[in-house]
Specification:
By secondary structure, this protein is an alpha+beta fold. It contains 18 helices and 16 strands. It has 4 domains: 96 residues, no CATH class; 135 residues, no CATH class; 43 residues; 169 residues, Jelly Rolls (Sandwich). A hairpin with a 2-residue loop joins β14 and β15. It is extended, with a radius of gyration of 36 Å.
């Protein structure tokens, strides 16, 4: 049965934390002492090795109580023998701490806190995030008959201390409304409310709570707070801020709350569900926690910079939600309050620098890598299809291993001599011919046409001794037009030499700026190749399909080398129908599906 955590009363009370005064109240190290030390002492006697003076640390228990040649910084129970107290109260301004150059001065109240803290034994408390949760001792109260649960006892103790009394007990309808709003974010269901009002048993409230906790709205409401901390969003977050499909992770969090998933499993599956032995689909979905970071596809960003930004975001989030630490300060400097050094922060970000996520999100709803998440009713079929696909992949791999022997046997039969390719009769074929050392020509379906060269361009030796066409600044070649559209299946191949100087280049293209850039273009920017195909305008929508494909940021073209590039398109007019091959190998690529 659920604990009775919602009070039966309305309490109008202001709970103030008051600093300990002369009434003998114990000084709280974390609340009163550590902030004084952090603000006035840690700059020279804290975690930063580069600025630390006289090898003294006051940010650690070991440093504060260590024996030194001239004494001990803090002597529990004896302020007058403590070097810390001696220096902050020294009559000689040159010897008093903090020094004049620090532009810091302790107030009489702060000095009094330090004195009483040492006098009371100088208890040293850990940062709250590293302390094990302990059960608090219930405080004494004036009216124990009013108390119905441990929370009541703490509330009443504070009321007693301030001379206030509890408000009258609320009626059942008000109670039902409060607890429903708190647990589900919604007013109570009318049927549920009437059942609670009619229940005169001592267990009526507990029954109401159990029914609310069993509602799917419990998970939907409470998961919102976790999703905020996990920086969940249904869009990329910046730039065009397009929609992205992250909702399976949201649904997983809601389900975890509704099923009361143990927090250790909840934690492990989000941080590294994909690294578990034989992970389930749900455990893989849980790792969407790592994909909640804001992403961009803005032109001009530096990929390496954003790889670092993404890793920083993940480290900061892990620190905040799982460690209870604001570790982001260590991005720029050692933290003077939280126990995190800059070196430790960047060691942590290293865990998130080995992902396969592209830096540029492509402004698409599902930037790779992606995970197919079928509906619950289709999961059995999906698992069966995956098993069948795995078997077929295995058969294909075995067949591929023997392809050379099989191909040699087929060649020996001579059957290939009677094959006719439909491409010979139906497809355009265009080839740039550089056999003449001075004048290039184009072979288009067996007919040769001269090529107009503009600017500083010439033929020279290229890869494997073959002739190549070299272009200088502001130079190009005019080729015959090809009727390529988004419904055209085609392949194009060429050798590209990247100069040592990095820049932005149009390698090849045929497009009409006045007709919405209809056509195609192959470009190189920051040593990365991209290909865009812009189709005809839709008569109804007025938009043009413009799929684009680009190899991932890890596949930059090397300078000073020849690279063989092949672009293929299956005629689908979609980014998925495009492929890029580099030196014979297909290149994993990102891209975008959008309309101009």
């Amino acid at each position: 049965m659920a604990c009775r955590l919602i009070l039966f009363c309305t309490v109008t009370v202001v709970l103030l934390w008051l600093p300990s005064g002369a009434d003998g109240q114990t000084v709280d190290f974390q609340r009163e002492v550590r902030p004084i030390l952090a603000d006035n002492c840690f700059r020279c006697h804290g975690p930063d090795e580069s600025s630390r003076q006289v090898r003294l640390r006051l940010d650690t228990e070991e440093g504060a109580f260590a024996e030194r040649p001239n004494g001990q910084p803090v002597v529990p129970g004896d302020p007058s023998s403590s070097l810390l107290y001696q220096r902050v109260t020294h009559d000689n301004q040159r010897l008093r701490m903090p020094p004049v150059a620090a532009n810091k001065t302790l107030t009489d109240e702060q000095i009094d806190i330090l004195e009483r803290w040492i006098d009371q034994g100088a208890s040293w408390d850990q940062h709250w995030a590293f302390k094990a949760v302990t059960k608090s001792v219930l405080p004494a109260v004036s009216n124990e008959s009013w108390v119905r649960n441990p929370v009541d006892q703490f509330i009443l103790a504070e009321l007693d201390a301030t001379g206030l009394e509890p408000a009258p007990e609320a009626d059942k309808r008000t109670i039902a409304r409060r607890v429903a709003l708190d647990l589900t974010g919604l007013p109570p269901d009318p049927v549920l409310l009437e059942r609670f009002l009619a229940d005169g048993s001592d267990e009526a409230y507990e029954t109401l709570v159990e029914e609310l906790l069993a509602s799917v709205h419990w998970g939907e409401h409470r998961a919102r707070f976790w999703l905020d901390a996990a920086r969940y969003g249904d869009t990329h977050g910046v730039h065009i801020d397009n929609y992205r499909e992250m909702y399976p992770y949201r649904d997983w969090v809601i389900k975890a709350f509704n099923e009361n998933k143990p927090f250790d499993e909840f934690t492990v599956e989000q941080i590294a569900g994909d690294l578990l032995p034989d992970p389930s689909l749900d455990q893989l979905v849980a790792t969407g926690f790592q994909r909640n970071n804001i992403t961009t596809n803005e032109g001009g960003v530096v990929p390496e910079e954003y790889e670092a930004i993404y890793a920083k975001d993940r480290a900061e989030t892990i620190g905040g939600v799982f460690l209870g630490l604001t570790i982001g300060c260590a991005t720029c400097h050692d933290h003077k309050f939280d126990p995190i050094q800059q070196r430790e922060f960047y060691a942590m970000t290293a865990f998130f620098r080995n992902t396969t996520q592209y830096v540029m999100d492509g402004n698409v709803s599902d930037p790779p890598p992606i995970l197919v998440v079928p509906e619950d009713a289709d999961r059995a079929l999906w698992d069966s299809l995956r098993a069948d696909a795995a078997q077929l992949d295995h058969r294909i791999a075995r067949r591929a291993a023997s392809v050379e022997d099989t191909f040699a046997e087929w060649l020996a039969t001579g059957e290939y001599q009677v094959l006719a390719s439909p491409l010979e009769a139906t497809a355009e074929r265009m080839r740039l011919v550089l056999d003449d050392a001075t004048t290039p020509v184009v072979d288009l379906n067996g007919m040769r046409y001269p090529v107009d060269l503009e600017g500083n361009s010439h033929i020279t030796e290229g890869p494997d001794g073959q002739p190549s066409l070299i272009f200088g600044a502001e130079s190009w070649a005019r080729l015959p037009s090809l009727s390529l559209n988004t419904d055209t299946a085609f392949s194009m191949a060429l050798w590209i030499y990247q100069p040592e100087e990095e820049g932005n280049y149009i390698v090849a293209g045929q497009y009409d700026v006045e007709d919405g850039s209809r056509g195609w273009s192959m470009n190189i920017s920051s040593r990365q190749l991209s290909f865009r195909l812009t189709g005809d305008e839709d008569s109804e929508t007025g938009r043009r399909p413009a799929p684009r494909v680009a190899p991932s940021n890890l596949r930059r073209m090397p300078p000073g080398e020849w690279t063989h590039i092949v672009i293929t398109h299956d005629g689908s007019g979609e980014r998925a129908g495009m492929n890029v091959f580099r030196d014979g190998d297909v290149v994993e690529a990102s891209g975008s599906e959008y309309f101009t």
